[in-house]
Amino acid sequence: MRIVFAGTPEVAVPSLDRLVAAGFTVVGVLTRPDAPVGRKRVLTPSPVAARAEALGLPVVKAARITPDVVSTLAGWAPDAAAIVAYGGIVPPAALAVPAHGWVNLHFSLLPAWRGAAPLQYSVIHGDDVVGASTFRLEEGLDTGPVYGTLALTPGPEATSGGLLSELATSGAELLVQTLSGIDEGRLEPRPQAGEPTFAPKLTLEDGRLDWVLPAVALHRRARGVTPEPGAWTMLDGQRFKLEPPRLRPDVEGIPPGRLAWAGKAVLVGTGTHALELTRVQPAGKKMMLAADWARGAGEIEGTVLG
């Protein structure tokens, strides 16, 4: 089976590797253009581009799928296209190129969390089960019929980044199984059933913690926005980044946002019980243990975040 692969970030690389290892003929790779990376803003190929080039595969870098890109895709004569986090819209002309269409690996149990940030929203909303789906891409936003799914139960401290890494590997296997089933004529997609929910791209502001909210809601949000866009609050007029805190249901009575010592632990009050800060990053410094920061900052009792 001749496959075009479309993807951009690191999370898409396991799928590309698995398709090649499974014996599919990957005739070409579509990815986003090189982007500036790091403080020096060095133009750097996407992880998928770098991996495709290492594998000796033809690569097209495009922010938009223009008529010229469609012409290139058609020239590769694919039987199907696999897409994992490409980061752009696939227009009808491109959708029509492969006889078996485009198969999208999406990191939610559709129709839950259609959109750009499905795992982040799953964690923020405290879903008991997360997962991935393969579906036939169509013009609507993640609306196409589903070929297959996989599910897992997140741990109590799971972050969206950790879950994404896990599902990138298991999802790659699901993608291979889906394309194999299509190739062998034994797999047909099923229409999505149920009320959809939506997961638009998160902004920096989505990572800001509002300490008047319940501790459980703050714990979920911090884990959901880790590593991107990252959890943060304000301290002395500057952004104060933090890794997900721990729940401390044994401590109540600290006002929202106020810091306090509890033995060697640094606690912060919320709308319910306390949270324990784990690692923090003051403006202009590196991430460090919260207790180390607090000892260096002097008297923190009474300091209010937010």
TrEMBL record:
The keyword Protein biosynthesis applies. Gene3D superfamilies: 3.40.50.12230. (6S)-5,6,7,8-tetrahydrofolate binds at S108, L109, L110, P111. The keyword Protein biosynthesis applies. It is an enzyme of class 2 (transferase). Residues 1-179 form the Formyl transferase N-terminal domain. It catalyses: L-methionyl-tRNA(fMet) + (6R)-10-formyltetrahydrofolate = N-formyl-L-methionyl-tRNA(fMet) + (6S)-5,6,7,8-tetrahydrofolate + H(+). InterPro entries: Fmt, Formyl_trans_C, Formyl_transf_N, Formyl_transf_N_sf, Formyl_transferase-like_C_sf, Met-tRNA-FMT_C, Met-tRNA-FMT_N. Residues 201-297 form the Formyl transferase C-terminal domain. Transmembrane segments: none annotated. Pfam families: Formyl_trans_C, Formyl_trans_N. Its EC number is 2.1.2.9. Keywords: Protein biosynthesis, Transferase. Attaches a formyl group to the free amino group of methionyl-tRNA(fMet). The formyl group appears to play a dual role in the initiator identity of N-formylmethionyl-tRNA by promoting its recognition by IF2 and preventing the misappropriation of this tRNA by the elongation apparatus. Belongs to the Fmt family. This is Methionyl-tRNA formyltransferase. It comes from Sinomonas cyclohexanicum (Corynebacterium cyclohexanicum).
